[in-house]
Amino acid sequence: MSNNDLKMMGLAKVEIAEFNGMTAIRKEPVNLTEGYFYREVLTQSGACAISAPELLASPSDYELWIEYIPNAVDKDETSSSDFMKCLSNLHEAEIQLDDSQLFQFNWSAEDTERAIARFTANQQYIITRAIPSYFERQQALFAPMGPVSGDTNVFNWGRRSNGELVLFDWERFGKASPAMDLAPMIPGLPPVEVIDHYCDRYLRERKTPTFNLAELRQQVLVAIAWLVIEVVNILHDRENAQATKYMDWFNQQFGCWLSKHLAYVES
């Protein structure tokens, strides 16, 4: 399952168009959170280091014209220092936020039950035994520690012509642990060695030593488990045409991944 496929689950229409003689991105409808991010957050002096596209125009509350970022990035780049620097700049930005405008992260027991019901009987048994340990530790993940993008998969990053790295799609901008942004950047359902690599690279770039590696690893593991639950529900709620294909992959991978990493979550 690719992150590009997940990106296509969005509800907004995004198109490349001409704006005042230059190539731009037009997005409509824009949700409350993303509109707030571009119109009010990025205008603050403390947001100057946040790597986001420039807002070109906002003709209405539901429409944005933003800078076109021409160059895609590769998933193998996402653990590099410039990605981690972008994340640390965002997470440590000294900005004032209106909580009522932010995306509210949530993981309910009902969400979990609905997702598990979509798996095969054998996988349901494995997941049901393992998932409670992840679910019970969500508080640290969702704690309003600082600003996060909430959607950092590789297809939401690009580079300007001068090589500068930019993160776009701010529909899930909110407050949470940095693990919320690390987890979507790590390809697939990763082994703990890969998670540790990402966490270590991130901690090197962070100015404020808020976490140790074990704490951040645990939160990333919880975030990955939650993201799978979210994705499974989105696939079915929106009747995605590729749901069967994706579920085949999850049925092969998810239960085993949860069980294999349980000790790291419970430590």
Report on the structure:
- The protein is an alpha+beta fold.
- It has helices at 3-7, 32-41, 81-91, 109-116, 121-135, 138-142, 179-185, 192-205, 213-237, 243-260, 262-266; strands at residues 13-19, 22-28, 55-60, 63-67, 71-72, 146-148, 157-159, 165-167, 174-176.
- The strands form three sheets. Strands 1-2-4-3 form a four-stranded antiparallel beta sheet, covered by helices on one side. A three-stranded antiparallel beta sheet has the order 5-7-8, covered by helices on one side. A two-stranded antiparallel ribbon has the order 6-9.
- A hairpin with a 2-residue loop joins strand 1 and strand 2 (22-28).
- The longest helix is centred in the C-terminal third of the chain and has 25 residues, at 213-237.
- The two termini are 30 Å apart.
- Residues 1-8 have low confidence and may be disordered.
Radius of gyration: 18 Å
How would you describe the shape?
globular
Reported for the largest beta sheet, the result is: 4 strands, antiparallel
Strand content: 5-15%
